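Appendix B, record 7
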Amino acid sequence: MPLALLALAIGAFGIGTTEFVTSGLLPDIAADFGVSIPTAGLLTTGYALGVVVGAPVLAVVGGRVARKTMLMALMGLFVAGNVISAAAPVFGVMLAGRIVASLAHGAFFGIGAIVAAGLVAPQKKAGAIAMMFTGLTTSTVVGVPLGTLVGQNAGWRVTFLIIAGLGVLAVLGIAALVPHQPRPERTRLSGETAAFRNPQVLLAMAMTVLGFGGVFTMSTYLAPLVTDVAGYAPSSVTWLLVLFGLGMLVGNLIGGKYADRALMPMLFTALGGLAILLALLPLAAHDKIATAVVIPLIGAFGFATVPPLQKRVLDQTADAPTLASAVNIGAFNLGNAMAAWLGGLVISAGFGYTAPNWVGAGMAAAALLLALLSASLERREGRGGRIVASGPKPVLSDTADAAGTVDAADAKGAGRVAAGR
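Structure tokens (predicted):
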């Protein structure tokens, strides 16, 4: 894998740290501002909604700017948002800072995924995307636990200042390691939006919303779950977050590896396992050992969905991927926002800190049904999933491969391409 992927992973590490660190600091932030836990959970909801809004807007802007330059500018916005959060005098200002930081999130991962995929051979694209997202998953193993530890001992404001410093490091890393990126060929907005008329793109994004959203019903309220229900001391939240992050790291790498071989079967396995584990956690949460086992498994099955879902969208929008790629990152965070909001609702209704996991199980199960529907539609629309090249332009037959894999066609159209369409 090219060294340039390390630069993208550095940026992903900073973004992942700020996205997930509130899970461990939620009680501290709520106490400092004098708000309830569900209200403090709006920091997760607000961040996620900021990603949803910022992803398409900044992706459109990024379509007219050299991708390396855009990635550096996005990290600058990320730094500003975290400085605002660190200096916030009241809860509303901190929420605003979270939203500012989140605006960079979707476009960074969307554009970064395109850059990563373009650095390797076609059969290694999902692996390259997974390598970039390794920065995100590594942040849950290193950045989030350390940020939680620092926040609990030195104050959560110090944590956000350190995260801002990570953003500065990411800018320097991108400047030094990412090769020059020419300005993308000007693509009409109508060409970018045409992808959303493809039912398979919409189904993939819906799977993203529901599948990964299920993970956030657990992670947003992880700290009160393990302290108030499982009986762990607040200091134990740090190493439980490490376990969760290790699960995400392993799941991301496995998802990237097998998505290049059998994309849809990988999704079926990950979503089905996620739904089962989320349904088991309300029972497991009453036992410390069971809790420590289930939490990293949820992280593994949840993040195993990320590379295949992102690759599926890129496969379906090869001609104009920028907007769709960024919007799919926004879809991950729309699911996060829904999960945090719904989790807060069931807690406020008096169902306790285990109840959000039932919501998450339902979301993951719905995503699995959509994956099965997507594969079924492919089988109905095609018979073998082939694009037969004829002349300089390949002609798409009404066929599809449920595995969603893509082989590169000969540039002059003398080959056949197995397409995930």
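Remarks on this record: The beta strands are 386-390, 393-396, 416-418. The first helix runs from residue 4 to 20.
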